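SEQUENCE WITH STRUCTURE:
===
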Amino acid sequence: MFVRSSIGLAFCLLLVSYTGFCQSFNRDTLRLELPRAERMFLDSNLQLIAQKFNVDATKALIIQARLWPNPNINISQGAYNTETKKWFQLADPNNAEQSFQLSQLLVLAGKIRKQTKIAETNYKLAEYGLYDLLRSLKLALRSSFFNIYYLQQTAKVYDEEIGSLKVIVDAFEQQVGKGYVSESDVVRVQAQLYSLQSEYQALIDNINDQQSQIRLLLQTSPSTFVVPIVDTGEITTVDLRRFDLQTLMDSAYQNRTDLMIAKGNLLLSQQNYSLQKALAVPDLTAGFGFDRHGSYIANYNSVGLGIDIPIFNRNQGNIKSTRILIDLNKTQLQLTQKTLEEQVTRGLQKALDADKLYKAINPSFAAHFNKLAEAMLESYKNRLVRLLDFLTFYDSYKQNIVQLNTTLYNKVSALENLNFLTGTNFFN
């Protein structure tokens, strides 16, 4: 009778077990729906904020690229007159020497314009880098969000079974010496309990790893425990047949930021090649000069032009290097396109396979299995089934519920991966 009443207490204890699990690691519980989590992520993620600063810094370089070189002025004043034995005869210009020169570098071959285009392309690449980072971090956020949810559902199953077995073990240990329970039964139940506790600890470690990642993404305190709120009905009703492969491929070609970066790198190498050819053209220096007494006449005025003679250095090495880089970036672009096509095709295939596996599961499976579990526990309390049958059933119950949660997460993960690969939230 004591054994039966002790087993009956198990389900009462389970009502608070999972809440205790949440609070044993962290003090603050944060219940989040996915839209709110994404808003927190966009507002506070430090990686995104840092990349935004990088974009702004790159944009400022466009201003610098448009600027012309400053003019140069050179002023000279005679220091000591050896004839009059006087210093700095500013009051007597007839006995003093003054001169000055004003020069300006005239940049030829459209170098300023070409530099500006390169700066604008670098700015675009920095923007694409921001969007690509956002795309990757958003996948990490949503994956962790759903992973935590389904891992927590699995943890509840372990809580139930461990709680039940603990009560049974305690009851058996008190009855074993009285002849009501054999020592082999006690050992069998204890072995099952230790195995479950080991699996449960691995599961908790996985949850805590995911919690750590989502806290970093949301920039919450280390004491926060995130409890995702998920509408599983929306997930189960997603119809993958709404979108064919070509639609997904077109979206990927239009929205994938890594493809935009590959195109931007090709454009940048082409612009740099054009600039390097322009740098082979020497720039012109124009100037005006005045010399009071230092030339063949007093108050000498002059204008002049200066230019390098491109005999030895015609920028040959840089021109050849940038021409090769164009071919390199063309190859990288082709590789990115091929990779994109393969990823989208495989991503859709994985999503269809995950959806097919989920649809093969009876919708009432979980509820039906829960009722069977309750009936099995009641039958064991009334000694209508053997301990071995009871333990075998509970192990099957645990494995099937875990597999169900894994299947659901795999479907969600496949859909999120398809969003990532196409650059579009087809499934939200």
